[in-house]
Design brief:
The chain has 146 residues and is of the alpha+beta class. 35% of the residues lie in helices and 14% in strands. It has two domains: 5-47, no CATH class; 63-139, Arc Repressor Mutant, subunit A (Orthogonal Bundle), CATH 1.10.10. The protein contains five helices and five strands, in the order βββααβααβα. β1 (5-7) and β2 form a beta hairpin.
Length: 146
């Protein structure tokens, strides 16, 4: 059972606990479960352009990070939001939303790459950083000033 997916952004593996995904790692992995196998299959379909939205149980973090994660999963593929828009929705400063995005343990599945600064792209945790974010946004058909 393959527990690592090789993607255009490099290897991806996942962790799960109590029946929910807890982390996406930018490296090869050894964790194995039916949920991880399904999640990697959905990620493969996403990278192949066949999947519009993930249907997986996700473990959201408590507090502000979890509130921001819940906002991010609502951003449709091909669309973006700003840190300020999410900040208004969760009633927190935009800088705190940026930090919560940076602490997102489930990039791609919880699409922090779809969150942008008012005048910048912001950052991204994948190897390649902002270049990976741009690749994901283009892959999703996002309409940015790229």
């Amino acid at each position: 059972m393959r527990q690592t997916l090789i993607t255009p952004l490099g290897p991806i593996s996942l962790s799960e606990e109590d029946g929910a995904l807890t982390a996406l790692h930018w490296r090869e992995g050894t964790d194995s479960s039916p949920l991880i196998t399904e999640a990697l299959a959905q990620l493969q379909a996403y990278f192949a352009g066949r999947l519009m939205a993930f249907d997986l149980p996700l473990a959201f973090r408590p507090g502000l990070t979890g509130a921001v994660q819940r906002q991010m999963v609502q951003i449709p593929k091909g669309e973006t939001r700003t840190y300020g828009q999410i900040a208004r929705a969760v009633k927190a400063p935009a800088q705190a939303v940026g930090q919560a995005c940076g602490a997102n343990p489930l990039p791609i599945l919880v699409p922090c790459h779809r969150v942008l600064g008012a005048t910048t792209l912001g950052g991204f945790s994948a190897p390649g950083g902002v270049e990976a974010k741009v690749w994901l946004l283009r892959h999703e058909g996002g309409t940015l000033l790229l």
